[in-house]
Amino acid sequence: MKNCSEIKEFISLYIDDELEPDKRKELEEHIDSCGVCRNELNELMRIIGLCRNIAVVELPGNFRIDLHQKLLEVQGHAEGTVKPVFFRTKYFKLFSSVAAVFLLIFLLKGFFSFDLFPNEKASESSDRIDMMAESPAQDSAQMKAALPDSAGNENSFSSITIAVDDPDSQIEIIKAIVLENSGLKQPSIQLNETETGQTEEGSISLLFDILNTQMSAFIDVLNTEYGQSNVQQGAVIAEDMTMTMEDLLKQSDTLDITIVEVILKKK
Amino acid sequence: MSDRDKNLLERAKSSDISAFEQLIESYQIKIFNLALRMLGNYDDAGDLTQEVLIRIYKSIKNFKEQSSFSTWIYRITTNVCLDEIRKRKNMKVISLDEEIKLDDGDIKRQVESDEPSPEEAAETGDLKKVVNDAIARLSEEHRIVIVLRDIQGFSYEEIAEMLKCPDGTVKSRINRARQALKNILVSERELLFE
User: Fold this and answer.
1) DSSP labels for A33-51?
2) What are the pLDDT digits (tens) for B16-37?
């Protein structure tokens, strides 16, 4: 550390006592002999001193009362949506999954016995069923059609892009957030590192399915952890996703799922 | 975290409002002052502080004991402040007539009204006002590290965690922010002595 521009780089660290001993010594030696840098140091220390003495301002008068009011509102909101006791038992999720499966079977049964061609004899309608049941892709297409319309977001596919400084380190954290804030079962997290790969921007994608109702909670947590301006939501073309969608639909015993892709981008 | 605080935290996680209020009691002034120095406006800082606390209340269930509660709180505060500033920047572009009013004028006036007693102000002369103004003029990336480091006194490590960026970035940012602050002050001083 011989010249003044180098000293400038380390001056802050020196003031904050963050320099290793040998570097500190070098700096001090330079300061001793260099008036310009000495002035620089003194000026900075003076400014920092002024900053440190900036007065602490008291909270506004009604602050605590206002806050208390708002907290009550939040609590009231949460309680208003508290479901009756039956819905909160740990078996509810199991019951609802079973019910959902039955409902699905019932609907499919209904769909297949619907008389599409009223002019033809009953025996021929079974041929139609075989034809319709041919390919797996068609199967799930019919499953989709049979689903009640509340899952009008049956084709829901969202992507969320989070800008982070270091995607690799954030992956585990994101996974943890997903596991905690998503729906019924362990979401099938598909790590698309090889598919989307590391792009030039350095991004990593996670794919998972999540109960639609859990989306907002999940987004809230992300916004809080990473800052709203760093989290972007967007709809994405479902082209690549159809196969995954169908797989998930087949495996899934929930009616109402959204597939979410989380993309971690370098800031 | 003290045992008392740990207990309060547990209760707060079960939506116990009173426990939550006690838990954040010692933090709210700092949050408020952080917001005040970032936004430059007394009323806005009050609103923002409440928003921060509500958010913390809502997501406190997600807080893991392993990390530092304090750091978590100030990280949320920092994020909310920066979001708000960026939002306003975007809004500024839209309302062109307001632009001139919203610029330095408003901010200066607001910060002035927060000054301590008149005697103190007279003593240090214009210095404190000038420093406050200068800080308000920094870019938000520089302002946040000056506020966190030189006004609030957080360590480099804590700041890195709050801003979620590497150590090296914090070090250079603090250095540059201080340089920027110095430059603003130097130019102000020149104006003062003209």
Assistant:
1) H-HHHHHHHHHHHHHHHHH
2) 999 999 999 999 999 999 999 9
Q: Using pLDDT thresholds of 50, 70 and 90, give the confidence band for residue A247.
A: low
Question: If DSSP codes are grouped into helix, strand and coil, which group holds residue A266?
Answer: strand
- Closest Cα in chain A, distance from residue B7 (Å): 19
Residue B44 tokens read as 């806005």
**Which residues of chain B neighbour A68 with C-beta distances below 8 Å?**
17, 21
Checking if the pLDDT of A93 tops 60, the result is yes
- Cα(first)–Cα(last) distance of chain A, in Å? 32
Mean pLDDT of the region A172-195: 59
- Please report, rounded to a whole number, the percentage of residues in chain B having pLDDT higher than 70: 79
Q: Using a CB cutoff of 8 Å and minimum separation of 24, what contacts does B82-89 make? A: B82/A227, B82/A229, B82/B38, B82/B140, B82/B144, B83/A227, B83/A228, B83/A229, B84/B39, B84/B44, B84/B48, B85/B38, B85/B39, B85/B140, B86/A229, B86/B140, B87/A229
Residue whose entry in the numeric block shows the structure tokens 């760093």: A230
Least trusted range by pLDDT, from A90-104, A114-128, A241-255, B87-101: A114-128
Instruction: Report if pTM > 0.90.
Output: no
State how far the Cα of A201 lies from the Cα of A204, in Å rounded to an integer.
Answer: 10
A183: distance to nearest CA of chain B, Å? 15
Task: Tell me the C-alpha distance between A234 and A122, whole Å.
Answer: 48
Judge: B83–A60 Cβ closer than 8 Å, yes or no.
no
pLDDT for res A161? 78
Closest chain B residue by Cα to residue A43:
B182
Amino acid type, A100: A
**Strand, coil or helix: what is A231?**
strand
Which residues in A119-173 belong to E strands, given as ranges?
A: 157-164
* Chain centre distance of CA A231: 8
Helices and strands (H, E) in chain B, number of each type = 11, 0
Q: Is A81 on the interface with B (CB under 8 A)?
A: no
By the 10 Å C-beta count (0-12 exposed, 13-18 middle, 19+ buried), A103 is classed as: middle
- Output the CA torsion sign for B97, A230, A265, A246: negative
ipTM of the complex: 0.78
DSSP string of B57-91, one letter each residue: HHHGGG--TTS-HHHHHHHHHHHHHHHHHHHHHHH
A47/B185 Cβ within 8 A: yes
